[in-house]
Amino acid sequence: MVFKPEDEQETGLNTLLEEQQDPLSPNYQKWLSPEEFADRFGLSPNDVSEIVSWLHSHGFTVDEVARTRRWVSFTGTAEQVESAFQTRIHEYSVEGENFYANSIDPAVPPAFANVILGFRSLNNFRMKPRPNLRRVDAAARPQFTSSVTGYHYLTPADFATIYDLGPLYAAGFDGAGQKIAVMGQTDIQLSDIRAFRSASGLPANDSQVVFVPGSGNPGIVGGDVSEASLDIEWAGAIARNAQIVFVVSRNGVFDSLQYTIDQNLAPVVSISYGSCEQNFTSNQIALLAALGQQANAQGITIVAASGDTGAADCEAPRSTIATRGLAVDIPASLPSVTGLGGTEFRETNNSSWAEANDPSYGSALSYIPEIAWNDTAAAGVLSAGGGGRSIYFSKPAWQAAPGVPNDNTRDVPDISLSASGGHDGYLMCSLGRCVNGFRSSSGALTVVGGTSAGAPAFAGIVAIINQVSRSSQGNINPKLYSLTTSAPAVFHDITSGGNQVPCRTGTADCPSGGSIGYSAGAGYDQSSGIGSVDAANLVAAWVPGTVPASTGNPIPAPAPVPGSTSPASNLLATPPLPISAVEQGTVHSGYAVITPDPNSAAPQTTVTFGSVSGGAVQSQAGIVPMPLMTDALMFLDVIPVIGGNLGIAIANPSPTTNYVTLTLRDETGTVAGTAVTVALLPEEQLAKFISELLPSAVGVAFRGTLKLQSSTPFAVLGLRFAGSECSTLSVTATVISTGVPARSLAN
After folding, report:
1. Is the whole model's pTM more than 0.85, yes or no?
2. Residue 586 carries which DSSP code?
3. Cβ 493 vs Cβ 523: under 8 Å
């Protein structure tokens, strides 16, 4: 039985939650204990005593009164429940399984009506596990980058490389001293967790298992045990030395969640279960919303998977077509929860993976570009990241960033991580199958995909933030969204793909057939949220001065977002730097200098280019004034050995910031890799190797064109370096402009 706060309490709680996230407030990060929460927002002790006495009078056994005085759990027979609450408990058969549930809403005595919010666990329907498991038969040799098949699978070391956790580990930040609570509804085999950590090269670190009092041990539950193993293993794979607390209830994961929050078991909670909002009544939604608010007030961060059937979250697992319309998943849609969507790697060259594993059992070499996860076509069933608009929650004030829809509703997901089981899925251990490293006795691997892999992994990153900051964070969404403009290098913007799934003609949201869902685009979108993360940059931006921002994991620059008030903050801006600052050790570095043309009303740009080594200029040459253009083509013939020595210099003589989009196309005209937009500040220049701007051109033979486009005129030339010698590459201006106002350009 869950208790309803008074109106004044509800108002006060909402105010406190805002103040706890406001650095200027005296209540900033002043989290409440359960007892402090009870005194401010719980039912009075006298009222609780009266309700407990009433329950006893009807023959119920009272199992527990919440520390927060927000609920009481009790046990009784179906007959007692029917008599006390004027309802009916029936048995139901669903898909071959038997369940019990109340057939009508329970009623409470008039004396208690104004303090009872609702009931939980009047039925034993439980959330379904999500992970998309598959067995991969392979040779017994424990190698996860196969030179025979070309398949790749994610180990913890790969995840750390791709999402840039290495600098954090090197600085000693690995979750030590932190706790992550994983929600479950089955017991586990601890031997699976130990096998996973051994196969991954992780230190031994047994999980703590907590059974919710009164619920009993459900034992090993088929299907659920794989979800539990995945969540525990990958939360601990990221926060390597954190304590993982696995909380189990026979009554289901929401019972586990309620107990975890009331007992303040951990400052980070991961839950991979959920269901579409339409499957919950407004009363049930209110119960979950109140639980999320309480968690945030106590400093608890909740991370939840957004679902695996794309924008049609109400569809059953393994469905082949959507018939129930657009829907999002709860608890991911709760404003108090960070919803995790899914991405899929899209390698743009053959240098993303090594041919064999390194000593840490990893083979990924760097960040790999991502698109929104959608394996529906390949899998033959709905298989894509959940996302869309909530039908219950309005737009939180903090959900503001370039690309966020102006729809006055809570949008999900908030952030995304890799989720494709078919394209570089996660390795895991379950039910004793890891015998030889990750492999079974027959040489098979267990590979998993879905957003339920990203949720515990991101919970691990949050635990590291807590370790670095020495504080829990509560609801992290306000700060996440604020970082999209103040620290865009934190995120990998996902601009391709989508979570659309096929729908049946004439069903909800599908009048004419085709598909329903959302496309990825610049900035926020409802298929990938604000993108995936560079973990080192996230922590550096979250807790300034504690960890240096990473420079070794390049982040593709997103395209400008139409209508953004500060588009430059989301783009790759290059302010002018002296040669000494540009120089990196003994590496030859290109540079450009803009000089004005005093004889032209619309100054055409003269560019000086060259190379430096050891801070000294090795060679340089001046180029005659270049015509200003808004559209240009440069032919590229990349030889792998010297591909990194191709450069490009772009000058912006305009008094406003210029956004130039670079698109690489092969000889057939097909776009290669991902287009990049660079921002040139007013009267400034950019000079970079093409390998820095377009990693697709690195390390592989390539013939094609580089197209440059902008609505504002610019000047450009191509550069080729060979040691200390340099020469120009021709650029064809397809659109020449003469309309740039005259301004004096700084050298």
Report:
1. no
2. T
3. yes
